[in-house]
Amino acid sequence: MARDGETAENCPSVVALAARGSEENETYGPAAANGYSNGYEGETLHRFLSYASTVHPGLFDPDERTVLAIDADHYPARFPVGEAGEDPDPATVINGVGLFVDSMARGLPGGLAMVEDYEQSTGCRPDYVGLGYSQGVAALTPVQHTLAAEGRLRGAVHFGNPFHRAPGLIGGGSMSGVPVHSYCLADDFVCDTGPRSVALAVQDDEGAGAHETYFRNAVADPSDASPAERAAADAFARLIR
Fold first, then answer.
1. How many Å apart are CA 234 and CA 241, to the nearest integer?
2. CA distance from start to end of the chain
3. Which of 241, 42, 48, 21 is nearest to 133 (CA)?
4. CATH code for position 129
5. Domain containing residue 97
6. Domain assignment present for 7
7. Nearest alpha carbon to residue 158 among 176, 144, 147
8. Mean pLDDT of the region 204-226
9. CB neighbourhood size of 178 (10 A)
10. Using 50, 70 and 90 to split pLDDT, how confident is the model at 198?
11. Looking at the DSSP assignment, which residues form a beta bridge with residue 17?
12. Could you tell me which residues come within 8 angstroms of residue 172 by beta carbon, excluding any fewer than 6 positions away?
């Protein structure tokens, strides 16, 4: 919907507000596959959006259903702790923690500021669906609660959620009366915490173990998606349509 004096013709009815994970700072061009995003959704959510738009044709429409990702000015998404397979030295870890703290200090209010900037610049006041991965789930929390209190949050879908403690399946919950779906891969050390998941992440010379693999196979071949991955895409489609 638009502000008083504005027409709603160019305003989407619902926007997926996306927040990427740590160090996922590559940007993407707008396309139907990523909901005509401004490009800051990060690699993992980009895979998810591409997969979801494949199994739900017509999921996004530039005039009805789009993606707005919290950009680097509002949320840096930093937590550098060295390259995969390296043993980071204490100085690298301390620096990484400092950047993470700064990222959260800016990201927690940054989501709401992003929404306010978007609405002021466009004159639009759409409904929203929260879409977060890893550190991005935390960055979304304040703005989601604000939008829910205003009656403008349809729900949320989260992956690798650091507040999730039930591995392996998509879990349902609620926040201020709206549905929240949280998907945690087994052995993802961020949400399936424990010695095994941490050990597997540390031993992974290519990355951070299961935490970096969400929708990797599904986007390459949708028939390889797990039941939980398909359930996540279906839940998102129900919220945004």
1. 11
2. 15
3. 21
4. 3.40.50.1820
5. 14-240
6. no
7. 144
8. 90
9. 19
10. confident
11. 68, 130
12. 179, 180, 181
Q: Can you read off the two tokens belonging to residue 80?
A: 């550098």
Quick one: pLDDT at residue 109?
86
pLDDT given for residue 209 in this prediction: 85
Q: Quick check: is 3 in a domain?
A: no
Enter the tokens of residue 210. 């299961």
Whether residue 177 is contained in a domain is answered as yes
Q: With 60 as the cut, is the pLDDT of residue 167 above it?
A: no
Residue 6 lies in a domain: no
d(CA 88, CA 22): 17
Q: Which residue has the tokens 């800051």?
A: 40
Domain count, the chain: 1
Which is it for strands 178-183 and 14-19: parallel, antiparallel or unpaired? unpaired
Asked whether 135 and 103 are in contact (CB, 8 A), the reply is yes
> Residue 67 is inside which H or E element, if any?
strand 65-69
Place 5 in a pLDDT band, splitting at 50, 70 and 90: very low
- How confident is the prediction for the chain on average, in pLDDT? 86
The answer to whether residues 143 and 19 touch, using CB atoms and an 8 Å cutoff, is: no
β strands within 81-191, DSSP E:
127-133, 153-159, 170-175, 178-183
Are 94 and 101 in contact by the 8 Å Cβ rule? The answer is: no
User: Could you give the C-alpha distances from 42 to 59, 88, 159, 199, in angstroms and in order?
Assistant: 19, 24, 13, 25
Taking residues 26-41, report their average pLDDT.
Answer: 98
- How far is it between the farthest Cα atoms of the chain? 58
Selected residue with higher pLDDT from 169 and 40 = 40
Rounded Cα gap, residues 27 and 37, in angstroms:
10
Q: Which residues neighbour 232 within 8 Å (Cβ) at sequence distance 6 or greater? A: 48, 157, 159, 170, 181, 183
